[in-house]
Records
---
Amino acid sequence: MHSFELVKPKTLADAVAALADGAQALSGGQTLLPTMKQRLADPGTLVSLTGIPELQGVCQGDAGIIIGGATPHAVVAREAAKYYPGLAALAGQIGDPAVRNRGTIGGSIANNDPSACYPAAVLGSGATIVTNTREIAADDYFLGMFETALEEGEIVTAVKFPVPQKAAYAKFVQPASRFALVGAFVAQFADGVRVAITGASNNGVFRWPEAEAALSASFTPEALKGLTLPADDMIADLHGSAEYRAHLCGVMTKRAVMAAG
Amino acid sequence: MTKTSMTVNGKAVSAETEGRTLLSAYLREGLGLTGTHIGCDTSQCGACVVHVDGKAVKSCSVFAQDVEGADVTTIEGMANADGSLGTIQQAFQDHHGLQCGFCTPGMVMSSAALLAENPTPTEAEVRHYLEGNICRCTGYHNIVKAVMAASGQAVPAE
Amino acid sequence: MDGSVRNALQNSSWMGRAMPRREDDRLLRGQGVFVDDLQAPDCVFLEVLRSPYPAGRITALDVTEASGMDGVIAIYTAADITPQADSAVNALLPGAELAAMEPLARTHVRAAGQAVAAIIATSRDRARDAAEAIWLEVEGEPAPTRARTQAHWGQTLPAFDNPVRASIAHALVAPFAMEPRAVFAMPEGTGLTVWLSTQTPQRGRDDLCAMLGLDRDQLRVIAPDVGGAFGGKASLMPEDYLTAFAALTLQRPVKWAATRSDEFLAATQGRGASSHAEMAVDATGRATGLRAEFTFPLGHWMPYSALAPVRNAGRILPGPYTIPCDVTAAAETTEGAAVNIYRGAGRPEAAMILERLMDRAAQRLGIDPMDMRRRNVTTRLAAQPDTPCSGDFPGLLDRLEQETGYRALRAAQSQRRAQGVVCGLGLALYVEPCGQGLETASLRLCEDGRFLAITGSSAQGQGRETAMAQIVAQALNLHPQQITVSHGDTALAPEGIGALASRSTAIGGAAMWRAASGLLDRAATLCAPLLGCAPADVVTSAEGVCGGGNSLGWADLAAHLGADPLVVHIRHEAAAEAWASGAILAEVVIDPETGVLTIERMTWVDDAGIVINPVLVQGQLLGGAAQGIGAATMERMVYADGQLQTGSLMDYALPRATDMPPIHLFSQPTPSPANPLGVKGVGEAGCIGIPAAILNAVMDALPQGTPDLTLPLTSEKLWRALTGSLQ
């Protein structure tokens, strides 16, 4: 990869300052390093975020749980389990154990890979993305494949998750990358059900309103019968046609409902 | 170039690094510990797994400078103090869990991390934990047997 | 099998024993030495600029800026290198057209990924920085077909009346050894020592000598620890020549190691053939004729063994059956990475189409696939070229039936299907010819009383050292620990072939047995007068020789022999080819909602002949099975518009621990008459039989009338087959 300078701030304020000059944030690095090895990214300065205590940790807040932006997936899988098992289970399925020890929630959602798992949990939970400057509702955050509402130099400092009554994630694994070919996150709240699907759409993670309405009326696999998604904007690639992905959206949503109990 | 220090296999070490120096290169070229291997460039194959502060980490996917000061264990640090093979290493030999040996250091390190977290895993848990460790030679069954044996549990028949 | 081997096995101490491997200790400690582990203080690094463009004419190639960059020592383009000969291609078929490598593209790029320039710099990163600064322009032009070869086997048969038909399209696959290719070349005298991650050190030496204009004694090739190969490291590659050339020219050590991206782009691939066949069957289920056509892709140039797959596919039919055959197979260059041997090398392609036809015929006639095979298996084997040396094919089927409870499984199938389970059973009966030709062995009593066994074969994880030590220990009544086994070094074994084609135990082991037997004879002759007995009374053991009431330790004997040591060199030419065989049953279910395939169980009866070490055999079978499962269900290299779509593990799927089904192995050997040990090969069996069984099981599960599916059997393909939406 190209050369660069690595800076390692110990506080959020230092990180924000370092990023103000157009430097690249480095969190877990499990996506950024492979990209840099391919020489597809060429930052002059990398600002490591994983040494900043304020960005770490899983704790219970007033309205749910709060996860520090630089918290590794393995930590979420372990420590969020008692609060929000569906989220913890999703984190525990990302990548593999070694990747989970480094990859972070902030890194994942800042990147917004259309096949990543976390965006489904964040959107499916109606979570709030907290940055160094503001709070962004999940519904306003994901803007398209690899696109988010984050400004240049803005850091995801935490994600606040309301905890649903029931939730589960069903992931159909792309056999090479082990990312989601289609992943469905279903969460039942008092005021209704949210369904967020990743891996399927050219626009990245999306909500499925018809499924949400049906499941809000009856949180059962049968409620989804007959509901389909059009293949039009679905990703078509080596690993699945648009039709197959559209079909799997229905199957995985149903399986998420079954897993949620 | 910067001097980057950490503890590797119990010894304080230091080597020159650039920003782009991966932990794997620090170990292999900086310290001559070539037991950690590079099998891919997309952080998927697991041949490079080491322990950083007790956690399994893909050394090809972290910068040496980013883990300055950490406590690192590599395959070279897995034998017993008297030089005999560690429990997992011995189990791999007993159960023919290696052929060419290239994936083996990563397999041993991942297995050690598993058993530290989950001392008596099921066979399915072993396979699942090794999802990030590719082997092209063995077909995995003997590796799973080795890990089950190392955990003191009955070895699956097939 | 040799009488002496028969005797030895009856008093068996070492051969046939499940011994742990001597290779393991250093590998488990991380003390293996793979080529990229080698370092030298003044070593420089070679990187390759590969064309990002598909086939076309090079209209610009400017290295000026790159040459001036920090740390760059030299940059070579085609004009700068001077190969003294074309790379060699084994002309295995009569009239074969050959297309040698261009180490660096000259006027045209023939495929994306082809090497265009070699950059030598003080570090890899600096070399890659410089590679980015090279200006390359390529104007798209289709690559002209450079080589096409066709051959025919069997007889020309008349048109069949209403035959069963099958077609198979194999995807290209990546051998994907865990260790990427690497070369470390060091100037030595007027020549070089080249450490090469290779299966064939002697061939590498010969090829490099020819291309560099060196004599054989000026170039030493050493294969240190090699991290898997599977055919992908069997033939000389452009980077091997470029690195050696750079070292020779610059007079400094030069190292090249492929990244995984390099390997996907430019390492050799395997498979990719398409086959169409028809089989005429009479009303009783006897196959009366088989006509098959294969077309093999060769990629944009031909490595040494490029024609082996097409030849193997053609010559193996009709496999374990007695059927008149009319086989045509062609191979032609294509736009893509070179296609070479890969575990199985043509045998999988032959086995699969044959086993598909058997199942189609069974289906048409309404008889069980097991019975269909029984009606057609060869029962009388004649030792002729291109026929199995030994084997009990009905016996394999019997054992398989017994171990699986096959008839009960078939009966249970209808019940399961009534409950909506999409399930299938698939059989494969296969044969595996295991190499022809020669191998060398030498055995020496060393000064310290230990033995040094040198094999011309090589090792990439097979446990070669362990097995060879067992053979020598058996022959001389030693303990294996007294024997050091060396391999992979042309200075020690100047002649040899190496490890490929499942030949190393059958041919290399036989050579070592003969060396050990020869040493035993020589020891007896030399020691008889020393001991005061007849040569026939000399007995060897771990301690030394004894006879006539006297004894002499090995070290003492060595001292006595002094400058005329006890050493035997053997150049063994296999009299005939050993043929292994096996029968496999795959049991599968398919999830109708997603098309996901689950292999519930594989049961496998294998005939690998006499087994030296059952642990090593089991390892080879399971490892081959994993690759077979990969090829059948998930592995594929894909090009679109000349660009590789599967350039990393993000897009190339291969099996992980969770993908492996239970595999029940049973050994049912028949000794091979083709070599003194009675052994057969075992390395490729998994790639030959397993995919055929899986395909048959899937087709059994899918609705009747489902057309032939291409490989791999992805979940979408199976879902479409089930929902009637195949594209």
---
Amino acid sequence: MAAFTIKVNGTTHSVDVDADTPLLWVLRDVLGMCGTKFGCGIALCGACTVHLDGTPTRSCVTPVGSIGDQAITTIEAISKTPQGKALQQAWLDLEVVQCGYCQSGQIMSAAALLTNKPKPSDADIDAAMSGNVCRCGTYQRIRTAIHHAAGTRED
Amino acid sequence: MPHHLCVPRLDRRGFLKVGAALSGALVIKVAVPIAFRPPWAAEAGPSFDPNAFIRIDRRGVVTLVMPMVEMGQGTYTALPMLLAEELEVALDQVRLEHAPPNDVLYANPMLHFQATGMSSSIRAFWTPLRQAGAVGRTLLIAAAANFWSVDPGACRAQQGIVLHPSSKRRLPYGELVDAAAILPVPPTDSVALKDPQDFTLIGTPAKRLDTPDKVNGRAEFGIDVRIPNMKIAAIAISPVFGGKPKSVNEAAARTVKGVCQVVRIDNAVAVVGDHMWAAKKGLIAAAIQWDDGPLATINSSDIIRQLEEASKQPGGVARSEGDAQKALAGAAQRIDAIYQVPFLAHAAMEPMNCTVHVRKDGCDLWVGTQVPTRTQSLVAEITGLPKDAVKLHNQLLGGGFGRRLEADGSVLAVKIAQQVDGPVKVVWSREEDIQHDMYRPYYYDRLSAGLDASGKPVAWTHRVSGSSIYARYLPQMFKNGLDDDVVEGAAEPPYDLPNIHVDYVRVEPPGVPTSFWRGVGPAHNIFVVESFIDELAAAAKQDPVAYRKALLGHNPRALGVLELATRKAGWGRPLPAGWGRGVSVQFAFDSYLSQVAEVEVTPEGSIKVHRIVCAVDCGIAINPDTIAAQTEGGALFGLTAALYGNITLKNGRVEQSNFHDYQPMRIDEAPRIETYLVKSTASPGGFGEAPTVGVAPAVTNAIFAATGKRIRILPIDTATLKSTG
């Protein structure tokens, strides 16, 4: 008996879990989509960022029962958007990644930023990205890569 | 396959086929000297063992079984570069596998067991992997020369192909492996290694092999492992170290939808469920009551008081030259200071986790660990299984920083899994991860120096007090009341310091497990030394850079980085009011680094670090872009600790629990970091930890320049920086 029907990256899934189950654990443990990461569990680090109808959302505090028919997009499908594709390429071009664990969330937050602000300023980047923690300290390259993907700076 | 395949660059399926082609392959063994073996490898073989394996298959694909693990430092790119340079293949021809645990085959020749730590990977494998590549190239060229009946000296190799230029003939490696595999292997030291000026790959900013799957969510970290029929366990460890569960409402936990089982072990309770949320809710429902045990009254202040007392007595002598006490007594000016650095958690982004399947006849573990053989031995001990029956499948690490040099998480997971039928993934919450870390020790240091009338140091004493990690971790490394780590950076400052006495008093904090943290000994000692030398410059009324330079006459590489960093930073150029510049110089992990920080202190006392200029002399830089990345990231790691890092105890419990009170630096606070490399032909130094080390003193020295206030206790207490006027 499926309790909830959710649409992830264009595919509909039925999941039999309590309504308060965070989307993060539905994605990772129920659907086996492990690109979305667990970092803190209380929306302090952004590792679990996904999009709900394009809005960046911390899946660790988003109960599955609250999602309804909003479209869920995860790191596994962000390359299908022009922003996601450009960002992934910029991440590679500028060698942003170190351990890589937070980068799914970083790219998801950055993709939402570029959708809303195709030419973000440094202040826009600070505002959109300061919820995403990177313990390896890749922030400088994240900033440059966002500008690179947006074509706002040639680095 | 005993190990998990790691897939850079090309597709997973294409790579898996390589294993099947193993029969027709050239296998190259790497010889590395192993000086001694740790206790858990006691039965290992003789002193010169074949080490990491390299296979070249009939398609020309080169597989390197990686003895070291990737945790962001770039070793999965830099080590293959060493091999590819001498083997004459393109970097993207190299495929990587995580090595299974095996100290005979994969020991780190610097650390003497299979471990990724102490910034040692490049230093350890710099020669062996190039030699292995050269042996492979020599064999492949010989095979081609035989085939063509020409002199091997008339052939050369390039991009995985042997060429005979005069006849314009060429054969790819894949077609030569069968013939090469039956040729006598030349002695390792008989093959010529390239002159560094002929390097075509080493020294170039090569693209990292592990990156493509890390931007699309495909990279598999330990926490992402999925085994058929696997359950998920959430864990609650006794909040007081050494406590035990007293009562657990198992029935209530089992009523939670998705919960399968409640497991009690000596110091923890785990709830096993279909997914993490069920397990977490089960833990809450279990309403665990704890028997806190004898450590429930310990507070940070007790630990600091204990250190303060113990540090009054002399300790194990790390270095003593001249007569420091006599010189102090006769000095024109005497300066005394006490420095303190706090307990620190690692807080890697990937919380602690381990997946285990225990059966009667064996045990499988899936975990990202810096110490696979240490883990394997501990698990064999707990389970009573022979080591061979404990299979460890190493994974990419979502940050290490030293945390994954410990096997405590795997040990707990195995104890839980022993009670679970089938595989179980034990995942720690962030709160458990921070409150049950093994912490960078609290250190309490006493220093004194004497200056002559010109301000030059004539005496220097430094007493370090705190935990010895080695005394627990590798007891044979703790000798005469001392280990090398705890005084590294203190015993050998880069400066001319006559009459120096450095000693160490071991004090183990009750109830607080301690361990290695990025930068290890130097991360503490270089903060202290570089702050204190700054104090001496101030006491001598001299410019901190000029003062250091005068003491570095015999140390050209240290002087070189200092001059480069200060020149690039514009040392001496005016700054706005409330701003200051500070400098540090260090030699650690066989690399030299100087950092200049530009810091603004507001009248309210808040700190903004605007810019950090770093000059690096790490010898030959294998991948200069990785050196820059480590400089940027390592500096932020050290800066985060200097500004915020502080684990404190109250009633035996760690007070911090998540990123709100164990605060990481965020993008809006991150300074601009500039990296300048000194071109060098010296053997490469380690660099994964170096930039973490010297950033705190550069910043606190800048604060002194801005405010006249000397920071001797970390983290920086901004309340002390408020302008009084």
